[in-house]
Amino acid sequence: MIKKLARSIREYRLPSILAPIFVIGEVFMEVMIPYLMKLMIDNGFTASDIGYVLIIGAIMLVCAIVGLVCGVLSGKFAAEASAGLAKNLREDMYFHIQTFSFENIDKFSSASLVTRLTTDITNVQNAYQMIIRMLIRAPIMLIMSMTMAFIINAELSLVFVVAIPFLGFSLWFLISHAHVFFKALFKVYDKLNTVVQENLIGIRTVKAFVREKEETKKFKESSEGILFNSVSAEKLMILMNPIMFGMVYLCTLVISWLGANMIVSETMTTGDLMSLITYTIQILTSLMAASMVLIQCVMARASGERIIEVLDEESVLANNDHPIYEVKDGSVEFDHVSFGYGDNPEKYILHDINLKIPSGSVVGVIGGTGSSKSSMIQLIARLYDVKEGSVKVGGVDVRDYDIESIRSKVAMVLQKNELFSGTVESNLKWGNEEATVEDLDRVCEMAQAKEFIDALPEGYQTHIEQGGRNVSGGQKQRLCIARALLKNPKILILDDSTSAVDMATDMKIRKGFKEYIPSVTKIIVAQRIASVQEADIICVLDEGKLVDYGTHEELMNKGGIYKEVYDSQMKGGEDDE
After folding, report:
1. Which residue, among 282, 274, 260, 264, has the nearest Cα to 39 in the 3D structure?
2. In this structure, are strands 396-397 and 388-393 parallel, antiparallel, or unpaired?
């Protein structure tokens, strides 16, 4: 895990190296000061040599200033390196997520990905900053201070041989048990973020159905889960300070008592005892600093594992060794296609689909809810790969195309198409960044969106809120259709994307398609028979099977599901009248 996370350091290697170097300089200066203090006491004050005191005092001042400068520089470089690592990790994760197929995205909830991109990366950033500074400082301080302590008085310094192993075992025990709770904590954070995200996005629905109490209950349960895991982990970690401070005080008392006896017996000087007590504090506080770093590392370990889980996720879709970049035409062929969202054939949702669609034709797809209409048409743009059989576009298996090339020629208006915060123009230009105003006018006329855009306060420059909250459902669908048309596709797929517009507008949109893009293959998934009635081919799906296809007249003559749906819809219309 550490090796994989370290790949994101990249251009911040130099600050990552300089921070520990300056830390070493800072520690060296700090360790030298107690020894200089010993010399000042024993050779200066005791001998009443003021000149010597001033010289040593000046050296101590220089050491303090150099140590301060080194400390400031190490902090600066550590902050730069850790913030740079966080930036790179965030970019690496975000860019990697963009390569995911729908199948990969299905494995992670959006709330979980947001948590990993924010909270988890922040934890790793904080841990990295402490590692290249505090975790370097603590062992070096420990080694240097112990070395000086043994040089001054090896007999008294043996107290550390007992204290350090005890503290080390205590650290290991507490950290290993706390990791379990921290790992569970971030899973609960995912759940909490999901609850919050769903509530805020669907706040109008929540209020319309008076579900505030239920949503509050869900939030409270997730929040209490965070509280439980946080408290459980902290109950272990708060034991660290009492153990550390207890050991500091105990070692200080032992050294002070034994050292005082040695001074009385003239086997030790006052300077030796003073510097030894200072080194004792340095040794044990370095262990306390290491414990704080390790606590952060425990949290970062759980976060790092979650980050690596995303970075290690490989897209199930990839180009072959020699992809095809040119899409010949908009013909589509389903050749014995079976598909499911898992690998178990018994759970496939499409079964042995055989269908040929000539280029430039209009195809209607109807079927009941759950008949896998959307799943079938998503295979054309290779948003998923078939499990059995093949889907061909322009006579070529879609798996042989360059993924970007095939998707650039297949424009899809999905059931849940999104508008993004920005202007009407910026949303439309998702289809073509180089589009001119004339291009925008053309596709908006075709999608029956021009009239309402012209009525907006600032036309194409009108601001669209996140998710398109400030436009109606029908307006949103028409903008999405116009955006798809800007791609100049060879295949246009409308997945129930005129459900929010009235029948007259729907008819005008289809008429525009017929007049202005006759060579484009148009696949219309709909619930209304009227939306597909004039199609060249109408496909009828039922429970993932293509049970019938043909023209409207042919299907009406055959009877079956299509005629039943037609009769029910026509009867419903008559009843409404």
Report:
1. 274
2. antiparallel
204, two tokens? 């109008």
Closest among 117, 108, 45, 63 to 87, alpha carbons compared: 117
Residue with tokens 């079964």: 351
Q: Cβ–Cβ contacts within 10 Å for residue 50, how many?
A: 10
Residue found under tokens 């925008």? 440
C-alpha gyration radius of the chain: 35
For 421, which DSSP code? S
Q: How far is CA 1 from the centre of its chain?
A: 17
> Is the pTM value of this prediction over 0.85?
no
Q: How far is CA 569 from CA 4, 240, 370, 528, 572, in A?
A: 58, 72, 19, 8, 5
**φ/ψ (deg, to 5) at 549:** -160, 155
Residue-wise pLDDT for 254-271, tens only, equals 888 888 888 887 778 888
* Separation between Cα atoms, residue 498 and residue 526, nearest integer Å: 8
φ, ψ dihedrals at 359, nearest 5°: -65, 135
Q: Which residues contact 338 (CB under 8 A, 6 or more apart)?
A: 345, 348, 350, 351, 352, 353, 386, 387, 388, 389
SS3 74: helix
Over residues 441-493, the pLDDT tens digits come to 999 999 999 988 998 888 899 998 877 778 888 888 899 999 999 988 999 99
Q: CA neighbours within 13 Å on the CB side: how many for 422? A: 10
What SS3 state is found at 357? strand
Q: Which amino acid is at 34?
A: P
The answer to whether the beta carbons of residues 413 and 407 sit under 8 Å apart is no
Reduce the DSSP state of residue 61 to 3 states and report it. Answer: helix
CA distances from 193 to 125, 159, 232, 305 (A): 21, 50, 21, 19
Long-range CB contact pairs, 184-189, < 8 A, 24+: 184/229, 185/226, 185/229, 185/230, 185/233, 185/302, 186/115, 186/119, 186/120, 186/302, 186/303, 186/306, 188/222, 188/225, 188/226, 188/229, 189/115, 189/119, 189/226
> What is the spatial distance between Cα 332 and Cα 335, in angstroms, rounded to a whole number?
10
Structure tokens at 79: 């902050």
d(CA 431, CA 442): 13
Q: How far is CA 425 from CA 59, 434, 449, in A?
A: 69, 11, 12
